[in-house]
Design goal:
homodimer; Arc Repressor Mutant, subunit A; 2 domains; 70% helix; DNA-binding
DNA sequence: GTCTATATGTGGATAGAC
DNA sequence: GTCTATCCACATATAGAC
């Protein structure tokens, strides 16, 4: 009969511990690279024995999965910039916010957008969060104009390409992401041209 | 006095053995992922003992470095499509050839274009080959129009973005790379607009 | 050059005591 | 939940026989 309330604060403590583990795991991943993350390191930094981690995550991949979910969740929590009726202005604002978020933690971006860890594949639940984050980012554009899936795919490729190049070839710099405004002008032009050539499609 | 000719066929045999190791290493990387490559597996598949590999490569990273060099070399060996005076046609042809090459071995593309292996950084010699391959791919465009570094950066981001999305989200499919023609039209439009707005810059 | 044998250090993961 | 002890696979490296 006492199980419910007891379980509550136990679950709370457990969740707090899990969150702390995820926080430190993120730190270590930023320091040693995503694949360089080791459970021994993680446990040492947390002041616990390595096997104790298995009380909170059933495997290293489960830990990656939780980091994956949490990462997309931060994007979902990102407030959308003020809506603007002008397509170019709206595109620029959303994209700038996204790029800032991506560059603020390149390792997180790598985990979320590339399949680089051999055995890891996000669980269906984690993938669902990623999907919601995607729709969250696309919502302002959808509200402004009619876009096809192809239009959105081209946008994600363009923005993702700039971010990838920046992270891979000049971490910390602005050579590629400095082209975001140009890229968005280009893309807005494209959208308008499509709207006039295929209005009945 | 016999050293020179003797050294010749010895060096030949040695090079043949190195090439065979690289070939099988590529196979294994495609099967188990780049980071999943193990020297024990590699030696087993080659029918030799693991320590024997050290006669050909002084470390695992040296092996990655050779794979890196060889990978860029295949791009350098890629014949450029017939030159065409029309910008859009030329862009489409070059890009199609590049995309085909990239998708024909996604793991190679990952090794060449992302820093995903913790300890590995290409040697200066390997990096020089990568640079030459880059110029090789850009040469047809350069021959046709005056382009700034920013123009080329936008192109690499756009094409690389399509390839990355394809590999990460739908390996084996065509959802993103099917947009290459659209993307090149978009980019050609951009180049022409730039040429007319900043002719004196 | 290539093998066997061996050694160290790292990693994920499990069993079982407390 | 947490610990110690342990297992297995791996990278790296060396010694010594053939």
């Amino acid at each position: 009969m006492l199980d419910k309330p007891t379980g509550d604060w136990r679950a709370e403590r457990r969740e707090a511990a899990r969150a702390e583990i995820l926080r430190v795991a993120g730190q270590l991943a930023r320091e040693h690279g995503l694949a360089g993350l080791s459970l021994r390191d993680l446990a040492r930094r947390l002041g616990m024995a390595a096997p104790s981690l298995y009380s909170y995550f059933e495997s290293k991949n489960a830990l990656y999965d939780a980091m994956f979910t949490e990462g997309w969740q931060t994007l979902l929590d990102l407030p959308q910039p003020d809506p603007d009726p002008d397509l170019r202005t709206s595109l620029r604002r959303s994209t700038h916010a996204y790029v800032r978020w991506a560059l603020e933690d390149p390792v997180r971006y790598q985990l979320l957008n590339q399949r680089t860890i051999p055995g890891f594949e996000p669980s269906p639940e984690a993938y669902a969060v990623a999907q919601r984050a995607y729709e969250h980012m696309m919502a302002p554009l959808r509200a402004l104009v009619d876009v096809t899936q192809e239009d959105l795919d081209l946008l994600t490729a363009l923005v993702g390409g700039l971010i990838n190049q920046q992270i891979a070839n000049e971490p910390g710099g602005t050579r590629w992401v400095g082209l975001v405004d140009d890229a968005m002008d280009l893309y807005a032009q494209w959208l308008r041209a499509r709207a006039t050539t295929t209005p009945a499609a």
